[in-house]
Fold this sequence. Notes:
Largest sheet: 6 strands, mixed
Order of helices and strands: HHHEHHEHEHEHEEHEEEEEHEEEEE
CATH superfamily of the largest domain: P-loop containing nucleotide triphosphate hydrolases
CATH architecture of the largest domain: 3-Layer(aba) Sandwich
Helix content: 10-25%
Bound molecules: guanosine-5'-triphosphate, magnesium ion
Amino acid sequence: MTNESMNEELICIGCGATIHSDDPDKAGFLPQSVLKKKTAEDDLYCKRCFRLRHYNELHDVELTDDDFLNMLHELNQEDALIVNVVDIFDFNGSVVSGIQRFAGNNPVLFVANKTDLLPKSLKQGKLRQWITEQAHSFGIRPKNVHLISALSRQSVEAFMEALEEEREGKSVYIVGTTNVGKSTLINQIIQIATEAENTITTSYFPGTTLGKIEIPLDDKTMLVDTPGIIQRSQLSYYLLPEELKLVTPRKEVKPRGYQLNEGQTVFFGGLARFDYISGEGNQPFIFYAANELNLHRTKTEKADELYDKHLGELLTPPLKERKEAFPKLRRYEFTTKGKSDIVFSGLGWVSIDKTNTKIAGWVPEGVDVTIRKQLI
Ligand SMILES: Nc1nc2c(ncn2[C@@H]2O[C@H](COP(=O)(O)OP(=O)(O)OP(=O)(O)O)[C@@H](O)[C@H]2O)c(=O)[nH]1
Ligand SMILES: [Mg+2]
């Protein structure tokens, strides 16, 4: 994975951006002074990757959605296997409804990542069936569904074996929304194959990978990491890095049960709100969100006042210093028809057993809240 010749276009192997020394605010910047010292055998990392990898510090660079879309549009001109990675903890936020169109005639494999965040008791067969059904509801017909945890390496080796068969000698493109763990997965694959550690830059910030990163599989074919598609309906798009850290679950999410009466509300920090409007009286609601995220119960009639008074303090994130600038919460109503989840995109969900339960979900303007068939 070295740069073959210094005359060719140089690519940052951390993020896939083209290396240059022109403009520090453009993706792929590396000062001339550093670049001069590199030989053809050196792995090159741009300055942004260097800072992300060593200080976990993000330098924002200019990017347009068009760059990503153009890259996706190239997919249907390739004869390749498309692997669509989704985040099982943020399924609805991370599914790419147009993926079948981008893939053209190429088969699409589904990889549901981050299974480490779900309760261990959840049966794999049930989960796989749920994912397949959900995929169909988005118009996606995956050739197969794999469940993995790229971070803990759970099932990654089994996935690699399956991939070797399913790719039928073709190149493999790993695609999906930002932050689903595409690069983490590829790093594990590289490490299993070559023992090289953490080659590609990964981070909890969305938009880490900026260009295509091609890893040779054999003389003719490659495994390709691609930049994540940005979904504006995802909460992460509206959060500061410090806030994102607080809502990103890092280990198995512990279900938090609330026995609520009609007219009660539960806040997810100050980021979202769940109102139980009406149904069969007192009933349980199970909340799934990062364990560190503070949930706060109150009466619905007092919720607005509480929010105005305590946003950024009791109800945090958002952080206090920017609570004025935080998008207003918008209210959406749902009534359950059977066992359901109310999904707060990028944050988690609330599981409801009883039918005909009327609730309201509040999310920052622009973020999605949806209802789906119960997962757990
Ligand atoms: N809990 C958990 N976290 C994971 C897993 N895989 C990746 N992550 C985390 O998810 C975040 C994003 O991972 P990346 O590999 O950078 O995601 P990506 O899809 O390449 O993101 P972009 O390059 O922005 O498109 C990082 O904080 C990872 O540590 C997993 O299996 N479980
Ligand atoms: Mg990436």
